[in-house]
Task: structure prediction
Amino acid sequence: MQSRRIGAEEFIELSGSLPVADTRSPGEYLSGHMPGAVNLPLFDDSERAAVGRLYRKEGRAGAVSEGLKLTGPKLETIFSRGTELSGGRNLLMYCWRGGLRSESVAWLLSVGGVGVVLLEGGYKAYRNYILKELGIKRRVVILGGMTGSGKTDILNILAGMGEQAIDLERLASHRGSAFGALGQAAQPSTEQFSNNLYDVWRGLDYEKPVWLEDESRNIGTVFLPDAFWANMQESPVIAIIPPARVRIPRLVREYSCFPPGMLLQAVRKISKRLGGDRTGSAVEAIEKGDFEKAVAITLEYYDKTYLHSLSRHPESHVHILNTDSDDPEYNAGLVLDLARKRGLVLPA
Result:
């Protein structure tokens, strides 16, 4: 059975209905892969390195010879796993550049009657395609606001009200501050984050605006794609500004449940920006269990930082929304009403 090749756009579209195999090494796969793809490696990491060295030293023939020695004993396992993955359907497959690894596994499976569709240009072509797509200008509304204003809750409520929204912090497994890793799973690589982001982005209606939370260029250790972040900076912002007395209880509820040692470690990450006196006061407050005081001290830094970051947006794009409420449903209604009045989203 002859395998065929298709471009990245068609390949991604088919991935919604067909299984996908990534024939790169486990290390390459962990660094970043198509969402939903299953690792079906021709070589492990050390074998890939050995074949690569031979290719540089002796050329293609030497590398192919070594590859055959390495893969011979495990061909039956690769065949069985690939056949099981296909489930009697066609199997989508890629390697790094659409070369020997995916071709070899495709040939093996095709002998057994499995139809294989290869990605032209491999994972490299996929990455080039999605980064280009993520850089295309689309209608975006940024939900900003002071730390503790419940932006993520509001964003999710807007989604429940029929608005298109992406929770970037959920995709990044980080809340975006020095305390943002607390209670979160391990962060994906920046590469995998952008793959996951595009997987959500492509499923949205291009004719309607998308709500995103205001973020720095990085969320923890994950960096937003450059062009995507640049588009965010040029988009209108609704900044919700509750007073500190409203935000402090929310932050105490969210973070006082973590061990004091974790909180102290987070405070020390921003000690240079807090200053020695404020850091010392915050540390003392945490050690005494006075979380309200600790939050109030750190908010002085975060509020000043947020107001500075808000100034990066063109002044005409920033819409301030003052509220005395901590009710995210009520505030989501205020946000949506303001967005409609300012023509940022379509009227109800």
